[in-house]
Amino acid sequence: MVDRLANSEANSKRIAVVEGCFGAAGQPLAIPGRVLIGEGVLTKLCRKKPKARQFFLFNDILVYGNIVIQKKKYNKQHIIPLESVTIDTVEDEGDLRNGWLIKTPTKSFAVYAATATEKSEWMNHINKCVSDLLEKSGKLPSSEHAAVWVPDSEASVCMRCQKIKFTPVSRRHHCRKCGFVVCGQCSEKKFLLPSQSSKPVRVCEFCYDQLSVGQPGVPGGLSARSDSYSLSSNKFCGNNMSDDEDEDDSSD
Fold this sequence. Notes:
The chain is built from four helices and eleven strands; from the N terminus they run H-H-E-E-E-E-E-E-E-H-E-E-E-E-H. By secondary structure, it is of the alpha+beta class.
C-alpha cells in the first residue's frame, strides 16, 4: 500500500497541505518515497499540564506541532525519525486514558488518544512503519531512550533530597538522565549526554555520581527504576528538553 501511494498525486497533495499548515517556519516534508499514513489530535503530557497537539504519521517520520487554528495552521514543528522510535503502552489512570510512550534517544514523552480504538490504530501503524524501516535498513531497534520528565504537578518537594519544597523562589528543575523534578541544590552539576545535546546538560547528584563512575543504567527514585509509567507512583521513563526554558512549553 505504501509503495503504491508513494508517488501518487493524492499523497503529494496531502503532504503539501501539511506543509502549508506549518507555513514558512516549518521544514519541507515532501521527499521521494515519503507517504502520509495518517493524522490526528493527541493529548501530549507536557511539563505543566496535558496539551492537545496535532500529529502526522509518515512512513519514515512522526511530525507534531501546536494547534493555532484546527486543520488550518500549526506552529512549533517537531520531526522525529521513526527509525529510532520505540513505543510502550501506558496504563489508564484517572482522566489520562488510552495512552502510550513515544521513546527516542533524544526525546521521549507520553501521548493520549480519545478512544481505545484510536490508540490501537496509532500504535499499530507506528509499529508497522518502524518495523518496515528497520527491515529495509537492516538496523536493530533502538535500545536507548531519553527519560520522560515527571510533570511539575507531581512533585511539591524535591524528588531526591525530599526536603526542599518548591516555591516561586525555589524553582523546579529536571534531571536530564532520570527525568525527576529536583531542587537547585540537588542538580548543580552537568554531564554530557551525547544523544540529547552537544553540550553538558543538567543532571541530579544521584545520576551524576552514577554516570561519573561509568555504571550502566541509572536507577530512578530512591529505589530501582523501571520502564513503567505511573502518575501515582511517580515511576517514569523517558523525556528530554533543552534546559528549564520550557516554562510555557516553548521547547515542548
